[in-house]
UniProtKB/TrEMBL annotation:
Superkingdom in the source lineage: Eukaryota
PANTHER family tied to this protein: GPN-LOOP GTPASE 1, XPA-BINDING PROTEIN 1-RELATED
Biased composition (Basic and acidic residues): 286-300
Any Pfam family the entry gives: ATP_bind_1
InterPro entries found in the cross-reference section: AAA+_ATPase, Gpn, Gpn1/Npa3/XAB1, P-loop_NTPase
Protein name: GPN-loop GTPase
CDD domains in alphabetical order: GPN1
Encoding gene (name): EOG090X072H
UniProt EC number: 3.6.5.-
Native species: Daphnia atkinsoni
Family statement: Belongs to the GPN-loop GTPase family.
Lineage, highest ranks first: Eukaryota, Metazoa, Ecdysozoa, Arthropoda, Crustacea
Length: 360
């Protein structure tokens, strides 16, 4: 009975995904090193393969030893991370950032490949480098995210390790990081509380809902860190309110359906909140740029007049009186244009008559 209900639910989720997504939904999987991003992508990929449409999977970690899922695009095929380190004399982190930068210059090709799959793929999953800051605070990470978000429904999936986050201070630093990414990217955001096969995520959900529960967890600690976490928890209240968090086990697959439902809701959020805001900002940027150009032109003209006045030059004497620009001699026979040679001759005549009148 329960299995039948599950199958029915799965079919409903599948059909809504099918209907809504004309383009594949891009999931950018972020999280601290060891939180389980790669294992999460592996679990998601194997479950989706068992369904009607397999996902399109992209590995953006140039330093991983092996990719434990069927991958469609692997950054390691394009950029050799070890060679990059050697050639540019870089350490491991510099090597990863540079490899990602090199790959970002070819990202238009990735876009084309994902677009090609629009009819037979619902999800494009991007696994990112182990060290989160390599992606979130690098130029290439921002370029990749913004390019995807401009073209596809894009959702950030932030993976948290529930085993390591049982310490309230670690939990708080993880949430602060999540908050900083959310406000930087402003994309729909799902927190995946991973490893619930080891530690259930109930404690984290309670800390997010109830400040007193979080304070109780911190009560035995009077360190500076604990005091800071306490005050930050009150500040993060607004952030927690709109947050979607799902429990997940990348090992057993528990929480898979809940996660797909969260993706569905995030796509609606992308369409209703992100897209209009993105368009509004772009319009504002274009308007600001055009205003700036007009302002610069006006400024130039006023400075020009001011200089002329200061030097006692009558405006217009040293430029062509017509609105047309003057063409060089080879263009002189084109009708409607005063030739350069004619212009020079005119100028010479004018100067001569001026000097004649001055001498007489
Ligand atoms: N028990 C358990 N272990 C997990 C889970 N997800 C990942 N791991 C383990 O956590 C470690 C780091 O996982 P990995 O996917 O490489 O993390 P990444 O650096 O974020 O890509 C590996 O040893 C995984 O087997 C999970 O849901 N449950
Ligand atoms: Mg990984």
């Amino acid at each position: 009975m329960a299995t039948a209900k599950l199958a029915e639910d799965e079919a409903t989720i599948d059909s809504t995904l099918l209907e809504r997504h004309k383009k594949p939904v891009c999931l950018i999987v972020l999280g601290m090193a060891g939180s389980g991003k790669t294992t999460f992508v592996q679990q998601l990929t194997s479950r989706l393969h068992a369904r009607s449409k397999p996902p399109y999977v992209i590995n953006l970690d140039p330093a991983c030893r092996e990719v434990p899922y069927p991958v469609n695009i692997d950054i390691r095929d394009t950029v050799n991370y070890k060679e990059v380190m050697k050639q540019y004399s870089l350490g491991p982190n510099g090597g990863i950032v540079t490899s990602l930068n090199l790959f970002a210059t070819k990202f238009d090709q990735v876009i084309k490949l994902v677009e090609k799959r629009s009819t037979n793929t619902d999800l494009a999953i991007f696994d990112t480098p182990g060290q989160i800051e390599v992606f979130t605070w690098s130029a290439s990470g921002t370029i990749i995210t913004e390019t995807l978000a401009a073209l596809f429904p894009t959702v950030v999936v932030y993976v948290i390790d529930t085993v390591r986050s049982v310490s309230p201070i670690t939990f708080m630093s993880n949430m602060l990081y999540a908050c900083s990414i959310l406000y930087k990217l402003r994309l729909p955001f799902i927190i995946v509380m991973n490893k619930i096969d080891v530690v259930k995520h109930d404690y984290a959900m309670e800390w997010m809902k109830d400040f007193d529960a979080f304070e109780l967890a911190l009560s035995s600690d009077s360190s500076y860190n604990a005091n800071l976490s306490r005050s930050l928890s009150l500040t993060l209240d607004e952030f927690y309110k709109d947050l979607t968090a799902v429990g997940f086990s990348a090992v057993t697959g528990e929480g898979f359906d809940e996660f797909l439902a969260a993706v569905d809701a995030a796509v609606i959020e992308y369409e209703t909140d992100y897209c209009p805001e993105h368009d509004r900002l772009q319009k504002l940027q274009t308007e600001a740029r055009s205003k700036d150009k007009t302002r610069q032109k006006e400024q130039f003209e006023s400075d020009f007049q001011e200089t002329n006045r200061a030097l006692g030059i009558t405006t217009g004497r040293h430029v062509s009186h017509t609105n047309e620009i003057l063409l060089r001699s080879q263009e002189e026979d084109r009708p409607g244009h005063k030739s350069f040679r004619n212009f020079m001759e005119e100028q010479k005549k004018k100067q001569q008559s001026k000097s004649n009148s001055a001498s007489s």
